[in-house]
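Incident log entry.

Two folding requests arrived from the same account within the same minute. Monitoring flagged them as a possible duplicate submission, but the sequences differ. Recording both here for audit purposes.

Request one:
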Amino acid sequence: MENNNIYIARLLVKYQQGTLSSTEREELERLLSKSQYEKICAAYKEERVRNEELLYYFESKKQAAWKKIQPAAAPPIKKMAADWKNTLKIAATILFVLGLSLWVFKTKEQRVFYNEVFPDKIYGQQNDVGPGSNQTLIKMADGQEINIRQDLLEITNDSIFAGEEKSFATALSAIRTIQTPKAANIEILLPDQSRVWLNASSELALDRKFNGSNRLVHLTGEAYFQVAHNDRKKFQVVNDHDTVTVYGTAFNVNCYDKKFQTTLVEGKVGVDDSQGNHLSLIPGYQSVKTKGGGLVSKKVEVLKYTSWKDGYFYFNRDNLAHVLSKLEQWYDIEIQPETDIKTITVSGSIGKNASLAEAASILSDVSKLKFTIHNRTLTISK
């Protein structure tokens, strides 16, 4: 029964995260009574577990947490109370014992996401780590924080929609920032019909007059832009020092770690920095800063810089350290090299729906190095 309980709990969590397949949905319906299943689904859709403190789980406090829940054994899933909150508490307890990670609702103002950690039964690792998912944290002007877990966030001139076309704000000025933590992506439809794919550990802020007198956004981290054409109103992406200006095009901007790197897919963009330098890009080229502070363009393999938004990581004779930095963001892990990884180049691709153990197995094959997973640390050795 315990294994069955664990399995049901994991299916419940996948339903909550929006990653439940049709086959798994049928299995969940089979394992739960119809009334229980319908109540759980209705509760998730209506409230999105809005104020429920589902699980306080920090790996550094795992033993202390275990002592707290040890005296109270969870009843079998099939005997769960009809109340959906009791069902969630049982699922949380089961996952707690197993050592899995969920969304952590630390307070109503601060929510931290942990993707799943679970035993590995395929690749010979001590444990595995699940991939990231589509979700975002929206900081409102009044200080409220709203957690959205879905594929698309839609913003119009007077409404911000999330989940079954339910609006949670009525003006752009109500939003301060749109953030993605580690292990997270989100696609955003802007009021002018431009689309933005926000990568992990990134932040986007729209100017209050967006789609009015300007189309200005502020970016920290990385994003892919597909800009709706408008000859009369330029679209600008800015950070603390640099600006990309376009009228309608597709491009990727990476400003992790104080760099500002623009890769053009189609159309034409202009790049300006705080030193007064200007650079025009054509498709297939990327803007980079020189050591002297100037701007130059170089021809690149565009797919290396854009594949992340299409669901996979592509690398071709890339530095292993660079590839691992992408995995670090997507799986929310720590990289611990015990050998020189900066001189090793690798080629291949990894689907973003792969678990960490699967990704590590692929990299081990192409690099001939040993990859070991312990909790959320990935160690690389000879």
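Request two (distinct sequence, not a duplicate):
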Amino acid sequence: MEVIRSYFKHISIIWAVFISIILYNCTSQDKFEIHGTFTVLDPTPVKLYHLGEDHSELIDSVIVKTEPSFKLSGQTDKASIYVLKFFNDQTIYLVIKKGDKISFEIDNSKQEILYYVEGSFDSKLVKEIIDKQNIVLKKIDELSRVWELYKTDTILKRKIDSSYASIIREHQQFTKKFIKDNPGSLANIFALYQNFGKKSQPLFDKYDDIDIFNFVDSNLTCLYPETEAVVALNKDVTEIKEQIAHKNYINKRVNIGSLLPGLKATDINGDTIYIPSRTDPKPVLILFWASFNKISVDILKDINDFSNSKQGKKLNIVTISIDTSAENLKQFLTENVIELPVICDYQYWNSDIIGKYAVKKIPYTILSGKLGVIKDMDVYNENLMISIENLINE
């Protein structure tokens, strides 16, 4: 019995060692390392964060003390996006995969940080697209400075607008080629979601440029189905496709010759508005506008004046604003003595009413006859008056 017990004890030890080796190998394979050097010693923390779908997680940090170099490490079981932060929140974005050994040379001797990266092809691509983006931003900043100096010069403004459009167009072409040349790179996440200008204008419109979003999504979802940024992109693209399909359906419904979609809504004074009216079957004019849009405001004022005329009283007029501030909207209506009914849910372009009537711009008009059939759309000034006269005289 003692021999048997000794045998099983010996076997248990062997199995324990074997399992430990396996676990060590798995862990070491999942581990990644980052080595870096700075040109100038600065004793501030260097931190590495993992970027999740809606949060960031600190993975490792070190304070550079005596030598201008650092080492960071972590573990990952999938390719993910990380950000390295140092010196007054300077950032370097990385794509890290399990087993990566990444090295940096960071020149922090000047205000603009320069760096070189090895050991991660995707991280080099991220640097390439961000460097190109920074060049474009400098060009836009230069245009902005010229505009600030000569903002009253309308001819120069047109030239600046044309130059800006040309810069963006060229960068779109560069980025599309970058994406097509590197279809399986997570750097394409950065390429897709670039923003420019004071209002952070996206480089690509999710709706107009759905093809490029779909190209990146279909490639990356196959390769990295569990990577957080890819999961978020897939959700985004899926939602956009559903919205496009819905808009296409709405566009077929809201067109000349089709019935005007009915609406029951409360105006800003609390009165219930029906489109078309349940009690007064007149032709209908709907104007979509906003107090911050001068062109639509001018049309609103003309329609407001017309509504008080003899012909104007033969028409049901409803206006729908995409304003976001109730206070500003009411102040505008009071100052300009606008008496027309105004519907506004203060949701801007996210308004359900905007979606219901497939409105893509302001100003926008829809006219329907007494039987509720849409007779004209997107007409203004003299053409609008002609359409109104035709409807009244039907």
